[in-house]
Each structure stands twice: as structure tokens, then as C-alpha cells.
Amino acid sequence: MEGVRRVTTQTLRQMKTAGTPIAMLTAYDYTMARILDRAGIDAILVGDSASNVIAGHETTLPITLEQMIYHARCVVRGVTRALVIVDLPFGTYQGNSKEALVSSIRVMKETGAHAIKLEGGTAVLPAVERILQAGIPVMGHLGLTPQSIYKFGTYKVRAQDKDESDQLRKDALELERAGCFAIVLEKIPIQLSAEVSESLKIPTIGIGAGNVCDGQVLVINDALGLTTDFNPRFVRHYAKLSELTSQAVKDYVKDVRTRDFPTAEESYWVDGRS
Ligand code: KIV
């Protein structure tokens, strides 16, 4: 939102009330976070999608708390305005609420980020409540929750039947009641997103959940067209950085081979010639 010096969880709530859609993207390093922040992004998610797009794993499961903390510290150094939210990785909060609290405290103390995100509904409520009691803002995540991919067995659209959509409505209300400041809705039917977004006072942030959510999030590598092998319908490529980078590297290789790079002007000389 323009005119805001520092985006807080309250700002996101005010944006929902004002009907101003919230723009969130992921980032994993200082350089990218700085660009996003200066371009006016409202919130930056240090997503555990780093496991896929940075480390090259098939799923988000392998990334560790130490690795998430490293990425989050890099991102925080590049940000002066946006709200920075960090994913708790798989296996660092599901065991019990004390483990969840210890993981969240480590993220907050060691990174300087502003909030954490975790996946799940009623099953993780005790963890959510305990983290919130410690004064740490929590973002929920419902629908297609990638840390449960082996339980789902597929990346298809979630909550298409009555049981799963009823459960999602209930989970969303419970997360709001517990005190979450926002909820990510991933890959669910647009009608359900509309219903959930209307029923909540806190903002919903959609990814593959239609334009009816209170905000949108994309993985930065997808939005910039750096990933070319992941093309679900909800991804829009705002640039073709894979093609651009590939062409730039080809040009560089050619210039090195032909000694066109570096030129005399790009070299240092003992006589101080410039
Ligand atoms: O890890 C991530 O990037 C996410 C978004 C897809 C919401 O959780």
C-alpha cells in the first residue's frame, strides 16, 4: 500500500477492510528481496519452496530449519518496508506445540523476520495458539499444503468434495479465532475461496485460488519465468528470465572465446590509461 513506511500485520488487515488487494511474493536472498521491496511489494514470504527452486529437491520436505534461517537472514537484510514472513519447515512444528514454539522463537531471534507461516488447520491449532501466546504473529496455510504431498499423493486441486471443503471452512474459522493474522489458500476452487474470504475478518492470500482472495502470492522464480518446467494454470510469467539469462550466457561465452571481452576499456593499464 502506498504511503506506508513499514508494512505490519495491521496494515494487511486495514488493506482487507479498504478492499485493497495485498501483493506478496516469495524471496530467498538479499538481492531479490531488495528489488521486491523497492518495487513496492507488501509482503515477502521466505517460502519453504526454497527446497524446490533453490536446492532442487522434488518436494519441500527436505529443507531444514537452519537453511530456512539462512535464507530469511539474507532476505531481511534487503528489506526496509515489506512484511517478512518465514515458513516453518516440515518436521519443526508438527510434533508438539513446544517444538513449534522453539522453532518459531529461533526464526524470530536469529533472522529479524516479522512473522512465521505454518501449514494445516485444527491439527496444528495447539501449536498456533502457543506461538501466538509468545507474541509471534502466525500466518496459516490451507488447501494444497505441499508438506503433506505424500498424504495427498497428487498436486491436484483440493477441497472439491463436501467433506474436504467443510473441513477447510472450519479450519479457516479456527485459525482466525486462534489469532492468525492471515491465511494462504492454495489451489482450491474459486467459489470456496470467495466464501472463506467473505467469512473471515483476516485477509486470505491466494495461490491458485482465484482473484476473490484478499491478496495473491506467487513463487518469485515462477513469476519471473525462471522456472520453465512448472506450468500450472495459476502461474503467470511476468518476465522470461530463463530465456534472457540463457541468451546472456551464450553471448558471454561467445565474447570470451573470440576475446571480444574484455576490451581495452574494460582492462587496467600500468600507465593509468582509462
Ligand atoms: O513455500 C512457498 O513458497 C509457499 C507459497 C507457495 C504460498 O508456501
Brief account:
With 274 residues, this protein is an alpha/beta fold. It has helices at 9-18, 30-38, 50-53, 65-77, 97-111, 125-133, 149-152, 162-178, 190-199, 220-223, 241-257; strands at residues 22-26, 43-46, 83-87, 115-117, 138-143, 182-186, 204-207, 215-218.
Secondary structure elements and their pairing?
Elements: H1 9-18, E1 22-26, H2 30-38, E2 43-46, H3 50-53, H4 65-77, E3 83-87, H5 97-111, E4 115-117, H6 125-133, E5 138-143, H7 149-152, H8 162-178, E6 182-186, H9 190-199, E7 204-207, E8 215-218, H10 220-223, H11 241-257
Parallel strand pairs: 1-2, 1-8, 2-3, 3-4, 4-5, 5-6, 6-7, 7-8
Helix pairs in contact: 2-4, 4-5, 5-6, 8-9
The chain binds 3-methyl-2-oxobutanoic acid.
Backbone shape = globular
Report the radius of gyration as a whole number of Å: 21 Å
Mean of pLDDT = 97
Strand line-up of the largest beta sheet:
1-2-3-4-5-6-7-8
Amino-to-carboxy terminus distance: 46 Å
**Into which percentage range does the β-strand content fall?**
5-15%
Number of helices: 11
Key structural traits:
single chain, 11 helices, eight-stranded parallel barrel, alpha/beta, 274 residues
Could you characterize the architecture of this molecule?
This protein is of the alpha/beta class and 274 residues long. It contains 11 helices and 8 strands. An 8-stranded parallel β-barrel has the order 1-2-3-4-5-6-7-8, surrounded by 7 helices. Helix 9 links the parallel strand 6 (182-186) and strand 7. Helix 2 (30-38) crosses helix 4 (65-77) and helix 5 packs across helix 6 (125-133). The protein is globular, with a radius of gyration of 21 Å. The model has no long low-confidence stretch (mean pLDDT 97). 3-methyl-2-oxobutanoic acid is lined by residues 26, 45, 47-49, 87, 184, 186, 207, 217, 219.
